[in-house]
Amino acid sequence: MSDLFKKALSLGLGVTVVSKEKVEKAVNDMVKRGELAPSESRALVDRLMDRGAEEQGQIKDWVRQQVQKALTELDVPTRATIDQLQQRITVLEQRLAEKEQDQPQPPLA
Predict the structure, then answer these.
(1) How many Å separate Cα 48 from the centre of its chain?
(2) 30, 36 contact by CB (below 8 A)
(3) What is the largest CA-CA distance in the chain?
(4) Which long-range contacts (CB under 8 A, 24 or more apart) does 1-10 make?
(5) How many other CB atoms are found less than 10 A from the CB of residue 2?
(6) pLDDT in tens, 1-55
């Protein structure tokens, strides 16, 4: 069965990007050609779809890691850093406003 699994993948199914219908069609074609027993077709479809979902998750993780690496190398601040700086600015603005209120205003000429 593992040879059939490898064949299915090498048929260009590209399980990570194909729909379940396309996988089922390819597996049904294998059954028609006698390369796969009809009783094994459902299990193969399920395995291929599971494998595709797993590969999609791995690709997403890899892309996320690469983006994070690029952002780090470019020294792009994180959302958390920006939020912390915004909070500090708000506190400083409040302090400045309080100091300005405490100081007497010079008379207008």
Answers:
(1) 20
(2) yes
(3) 101
(4) 1/40, 1/44, 4/30, 4/35, 4/36, 4/40, 4/44, 5/44, 5/47, 5/48, 7/35, 8/44, 8/48, 9/48, 9/51
(5) 6
(6) 455 555 555 554 455 556 778 888 888 888 899 888 888 888 888 888 888 788 7
Yes or no: say if 6 and 35 are a contact pair by the CB < 8 Å rule. Answer: no
Q: Where are the alpha helices (DSSP H) in 9-105?
A: 20-32, 38-73, 79-102
Write phi, then psi, for 25 (nearest 5 degrees). Answer: -65, -45
The position carrying tokens 């209120």 is 101
